[in-house]
Amino acid sequence: MKMHISKTQEEVIVALADFMVNEANQSIAKHGRFSVVLSGGSSPKKLFETLASPGYRERIAWPQWFFFFGDERYVPATHADSNYRMAKETLLDPMNITPGQVFRMNTDLTPPEAASAYETDLLAYFGDKPVRFDLILLGLGDDAHTASLFPHTPVLHEKEALVKEVFVPKVSAFRITLTTRSINCAANVAFLTFGASKASAVHHVLKGVRNIEEYPAQLIKPEDGTLHWFIDEAAAAQIEN
Ligand code: 6PG
């Protein structure tokens, strides 16, 4: 596991953006393309805007980037809460990413169909190779959930499916999420976490007693890949000795 602790949120974003550009260039040199799973929520917005900004966008071989989503709220793609909409507005549209490079979780379908349709998309993209993303971005909720792997939900124990729909009592709504199976076979997994409100969750995940029902992000352990934490000092306050 690699900790990338920065003083401020802005420095965390720059560190992760630099990491992504370098990782992408290495993946493209190795196998001609870069598969990246975007996280949702509010934290990644500044990251996407940074990647699309002068100084970064020229360094990126956009046609070789392929975009996936770690989870999605069950709302239309145009809804204010849609993770896809946020990525589209801040990164995909400004960088003229073509539709063939973007794999949206299709929330126009009903829950079980949407999850199986997305799994089919993943299998088609990776072809005869195992599903292994070059990079998965993850956020961390202050309850230590990640993607839509929320405390005390059945999806935490899913061993077979790569993508599942899950009803989340906490938000009284369905979500669609990558499972630990698809996350833990990635080459790189990077948490992007900042702010004092996350310090307790970070401590529980990294230093606390093992309790995956309470702290689902403890499940994230790439089998043959690297786990990164891009985090500011405020969020790391309870783990720094
Ligand atoms: C979502 C996310 C979720 C998010 C965390 C952190 O769809 O909400 O995927 O897992 O990453 O809740 O959210 P913030 O970045 O907004 O704190």
Description:
The protein has helices at 9-31, 44-51, 83-92, 111-126, 180-183, 199-206, and strands spanning 2-6, 34-38, 65-69, 71-73, 135-138, 163-168, 173-178, 188-193, 226-232. By secondary structure, the protein is α/β, with parallel strands linked by helices. It has a single domain, classed as Rossmann fold (3-Layer(aba) Sandwich). The protein is globular, with a radius of gyration of 17 Å. The model has no long low-confidence stretch (mean pLDDT 97). The structure holds 6-phosphogluconic acid. 6-phosphogluconic acid binds next to strand 4. Belongs to the glucosamine/galactosamine-6-phosphate isomerase family. 6-phosphogluconolactonase subfamily. It catalyses: 6-phospho-D-glucono-1,5-lactone + H2O = 6-phospho-D-gluconate + H(+).
Number of strands: 9
Main beta sheet, described? 6 strands, parallel
CATH class bucket = Alpha Beta
Structural class: alpha/beta
Distinct compounds present? 6-phosphogluconic acid
Pathway: Carbohydrate degradation; pentose phosphate pathway; D-ribulose 5-phosphate from D-glucose 6-phosphate (oxidative stage): step 2/3
GO molecular function, one term: 6-phosphogluconolactonase activity
Family: Belongs to the glucosamine/galactosamine-6-phosphate isomerase family. 6-phosphogluconolactonase subfamily.
Protein name: 6-phosphogluconolactonase
